[in-house]
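Thread title: Can someone regenerate the structure for this chain?

I was given the following input by a collaborator and told the matching structure tokens would be attached. They weren't. Posting the sequence so someone can regenerate them.
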Amino acid sequence: MTTENPPRPTGACPPRRLRADRARQVADVLRQQVLSEVYGPRPLPHEDVLAEEFGESRNTIRGALDLLRTEGLVRRVPGSGTLVVADKVPHGLDRLMGLAETLHEHGEVTNEVRAFGPVRAPGPVARRLELPDGADVVYVERLRRLNGLPLSLDLTYLAPDIGAALDAEDLVHQDVFRLIEEVAGQPLGRADITLEAVNADAHSATVLEVPRGGALLMLERLTTLADGRPVDLEYVRFRGDRITMQGRLLRSAL
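Best answer:
Regenerated them for you:
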């Protein structure tokens, strides 16, 4: 006896997704709109409106809004709806600027210099700055605040001649990039950056006022002068709940 093969479907069926997965997908889109100030001071659209816009159920929309509430981006106000409460500021990644230059439109950036002086460069630091093994560098640790709130902890290694010409008091009032250009007599050229998430160690957690083990954004940046000489190696830990990284990337011919 022969058995006929069942007919094959003429079209692929979309995979069935859990409601939590769909809520996360909606939250990703809404998060970008919140951070881009699409809604401004207005409440987010009603759940019914969002459900129609995303083609999802109200329960899925509620799950997405719950995720944003957990992140501290929105809050539910009875009688008013869901309001934006995010206090994040944008940090551009497509231009080489200091923090005060980047965020000047968003308030006052202040610097607390927690350490300043010569130290022996760890081997990897010396090599990144193209210095001999065992060379001294100037180490700077600064707590950066925006409008009085902790924003970042900056650990900086400066080329010895550049760092020696600086004073801790200068770093309280100015971005290190401007000072480097003044000392070197030439502009900065470029920076190689790496951005990743790290857990807050005990020291960083205390200084930045976050829970120990909480997620921070860490930017590693090696900055060179216009002539190509590396002079500044930084490890900057940002509070991820107060800053968002933005940039524009161009695709060149392959």
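DSSP finds nine helices and ten strands in the chain.
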